[in-house]
Design a protein that fits this description.
Helix content is 54%, strand content 9%. It is α/β, with parallel strands linked by helices. Strand 3, helix 12 (219-230) and strand 4 (234-239) form a beta-alpha-beta unit. Helix 4 (53-60) packs across helix 5. The model is unreliable at 93-110 and 288-292 (pLDDT under 50).
Length: 292
């Protein structure tokens, strides 16, 4: 049977990477509700692969009909056909990835029920499982060439300005600490006194802004990135997917999709990415000193 086509006559995406590219191309053109579904689907691909339409609608906080409309907007016959793309990502070509999860995750740590949250040992086990899943996912998905370009820009910048708040503040503070310890000129844009505009104005033409924000997309961090881009300053971003409001503002982006446990997000994969960047910058600084 012929598959449905999109409004432009194109066939729907046949795999997850094509789907991500399609959604990135449509960024800004989807309605608010459909954009909400797109964000949820890209942030929670495993849940989309295994949960029912009704369950996903509840998690994404939209009516089930909105998810069906989202699927048809992309050219799929319905939700089941769209879900098959996510299932193939999980179980098809990436079967070794699934095996690695099964082999490495500790036994006896199924997803937590509400009642389990009263037991710290079960919460701990759930957090460990979420972190391990996140690490395996980032090992599979992180663009190594993008990481190299990221480090190259940071290494040649006169000064690095970091914007990270709320849930991402710990990552930003750690990046500030690590970069300062290896001798880089670095500042943390903390919006103290609501003076983020003045802090952004201090970013020099040879400096770079490193913005970190994830699926809550802290408005202050997004605004800082917009102001820097508007001033012609170079922006780098660590965020969760192509639909992030800072992705289109950045010269280079690293995508880190972090697992969630309830309302908490595992920061382990993003921390590993930050540590890899800091170590790489330290190595380059050491090599430059040795050759100088």
């Amino acid at each position: 049977m012929e598959r449905a086509t999109t409004a432009t006559g194109q066939r729907p995406p046949r795999d997850y990477e094509a789907l991500r590219a399609e959604l990135a191309a449509r960024s800004g053109s989807l309605s608010r509700r459909l954009a909400q579904v797109a964000q949820f689907f890209l942030n929670h691909p495993e849940e989309v692969a295994i949960n029912t339409l009704v369950q996903l609608a509840a998690q994404a906080q939209v009516p089930p009909a909105t998810i069906t409309r989202f699927a048809k907007e992309l050219g799929f016959a319905g939700f089941a056909e769209l879900q098959a793309v996510f299932r193939e990502r999980l179980l098809g070509p990436r079967l070794p990835y699934v095996s690695r999860i099964e082999n490495r995750l500790p036994a006896g740590n199924p997803p937590l029920a509400d009642g389990d949250l009263d037991h710290p040992d079960l919460v701990f086990g759930g957090m460990v499982q979420a972190a391990m899943q996140s690490l395996l996912r980032i090992d599979e998905s992180l663009d190594r060439q993008a990481l190299s370009r990221f480090v190259e820009v940071l290494a040649t910048a006169d000064m690095i300005h970091i914007a990270a708040a709320r849930g991402a503040f710990g990552l930003g503070a750690y990046a500030f600490y690590g970069m300062a310890k290896i001798g880089r000129r670095v500042s943390l844009i903390d919006n103290l006194g609501a003076m983020r505009a003045e802090q952004v104005a201090a970013i020099g033409p040879s400096d770079v802004l490193l913005a970190m924000t994830f699926d809550d997309y802290t408005p202050e961090t997004v605004e800082i990135a917009r102001m820097a881009a508007r001033n012609g300053r170079q922006v780098l971003a660590i965020t969760d997917n192509e639909l992030s409001p800072v992705a289109g503002l950045a010269r280079h982006v690293l995508y880190v999709n972090e697992a969630r446990l309830g309302h908490l997000r595992s920061q382990v994969p993003a921390m590993i990415v930050c540590q890899a960047i800091i170590v790489s910058l330290a190595r380059r600084a050491g090599g430059a000193s040795a050759s100088g």
